[in-house]
Amino acid sequence: MAVKHETELYAPLKAFFERQGYSIKGEVRTCDLVGMREDGEQPLIVEMKKSFNLALLLQGVERLRLSPNVYLAVERVRNKKGAVNQRWGELSGLCRRLGLGLITVVFYKTKAPLVEVLAEPGDAPPQVRSGLRRRERLLYEFRERSGDYNTGGSTRVKLVTAYREKALRVALALQAAEAEAAPAAGPGGAPLGVTPAELRRRSGVPGAAAFLQKNYYGWFFRVGRGRYTLTAAGTAALIEYAAIAEISAGKL
C-alpha cells in the first residue's frame, strides 16, 4: 500500500531506532530524523522520501558533512514491478559506495510496517571533517530541545525549535508574573511590566533578556526601561503551543 505523504515513514522509523537505544527527534535543523545514543559521539541522521530519487541521494550526501551515520529511507511497495526504485540491489550498492545507509519501509493493511535495512553507512568520507561546526550546531539544537515536538518530513509548518521553546518559557514566565502582579498594576490598570532578571529567574532561560530585546516573534512589548509585558500575539502563542507550555511550566 502506497503512502500519501513521506511523514508516514517517520513513526515506524522512530520506533525502529528507539528499539536500538536511540533518542529520536524529528526536523532538527532541516534533517528529517535525528537520533543520539548516550554512548555515541556521532548523530544518527535519516532522510526520508516516498520513493528513491536523485534529490534524496544528494540530500544524503550533503548530510555526510554532519555525520558518517546517515541513512536514506523510502517506502517499498510490494506490488510495483519494474520501477526504478525497486532495483534495491543496485541502489544498495550505490549507497554503500557513497557511505550511506539505505532503509525500506513496507506498509500493510492489517499489520505493523516492516522496516528493513538494506545497507549500513560506510566509513566517513573526507568531507565529514569540514562539517565540524555544522555538526556542533546540529547537536546543540538536538540537546537544547526538551522533547520531540515535530514530525520528521514536515514542510511548510511551524517547527518547534529550541529557540521557540525557550521563547515560550520566557512568555509563560511573563504571563505568570503579570498574573501575580495584577493587583499592583499602575494607574488606570496599566501594566507595570516585568524585568529581564525576574524572567530569567522564573523561566530558567539564561538569555531571557535577549529574547525580550530581539522580540523575534513579536510576543513581548517594552512598557518602560527594563520592563516588559506580554502582547496579544504572545498570549495567542501560549494557547497555540499549550502542550509545550505545560511541559515548560514544570521547569519554572
Class from helix and strand fractions: alpha/beta
Strand order of the largest sheet: 1-2-3-4-5-6
Main sheet? 6 strands, mixed
Low-confidence runs of at least 5 consecutive residues: none
SS field, number of helical segments: 9
Order of helices and strands: HEEEHEHEEHHHHEEHH
Shape: elongated
Oligomer: single chain
Count of beta strands: 8
Helical residue percent? Answer: 25-40%
Calculate the terminal CA-CA distance, rounded to whole Å.
46 Å
Strand content: 15-25%
Whole-number average pLDDT? Answer: 88
Question: Can you offer a commentary on this structure?
Answer:
This protein is of the alpha/beta class and 252 residues long. It is 38% helix and 18% strand. It contains nine helices and eight strands. The protein has a six-stranded mixed sheet, with helices on both faces. It has a two-stranded antiparallel sheet with strand order 7-8.
How would you summarize this macromolecular structure in one to three sentences?
The protein contains nine helices and eight strands.
Task: Detail the topology: elements first, then pairings.
Layout: H1 10-18, E1 23-28, E2 31-36, E3 44-49, H2 54-63, E4 70-75, H3 88-98, E5 101-106, E6 114-119, H4 132-144, H5 162-181, H6 196-203, H7 208-214, E7 220-224, E8 227-230, H8 232-240, H9 242-249
Parallel strand pairs: 3-4, 4-5
Antiparallel strand pairs: 1-2, 2-3, 5-6, 7-8
Helix pairs in contact: 5-6, 5-8, 5-9
